[in-house]
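Ticket #4471: structure export looks truncated?
Reporter: QA, pipeline team
Priority: medium

Steps to reproduce: submit the single chain below to the structure queue and open the exported record.
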Amino acid sequence: MYIIVAGGGKVGFYLARELLEQGHEVLVIEKDGKRADLIQNDLGNVVMVGMADEAATLEEAGAARADVICAVTGDDEDNLVICQVARKRFQVPRAIARINNPKNEEIFRLLGIDETVSSTNMVLAALEQEIPSRNLVPLLRLRHADIEIVEAVIDDSSPLVGVNLRDLSLPRESIIAVIIRRSQPIFPTGTTTLEVGDEVIALTRSAHEDALRSLFFRTARR
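Actual output as written to the record:
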């Protein structure tokens, strides 16, 4: 694949290096000439100096034949513009944007950029898995389908212990997909009973995630 990496900072540099090692054709666009020289010294002639949010630069970079563009600058606004220009002007099939401020994720989605990566959210998700008081953890968001995959752990203080799934009042458009019990997956039915230590994997619409979270928190604190 031909992949354009917009932004030659640490994220862009290491991303480009990994992609090159995998055998992809890569071009890094970096606005700072000195930084571009450092990248060229390490990775070879795979970098050009320019403003990746400008159509002329993307045209020179060959965006019309690119399979993917990864906008990984340190500025969310730049990343948004880069992806929009790449998709609308050059019809790049995939545009992936780095988001530095998680609050901007909804703006990206509304403007048609569905493939985003937020390092802040990734770290928060990892932390939440280690915090006992937080028993609903976001695992994955399928943005194209507007589906959230979340995990809830049933502890020994929860009144959900011993409850059949058919008796659990889930929010609408929400289902319990899998239960992990003692490292073994269980594909549940309505008669499946929840036990202490169960890891419950649920699917829900983004709009209902808070309701699902409230259900688990409320029931866990009775």
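Status: closed, not a bug. The export was complete when the record was re-opened. Leaving a note from the reviewer for reference: The CA atoms of residues 164 and 193 lie 4 Å apart.
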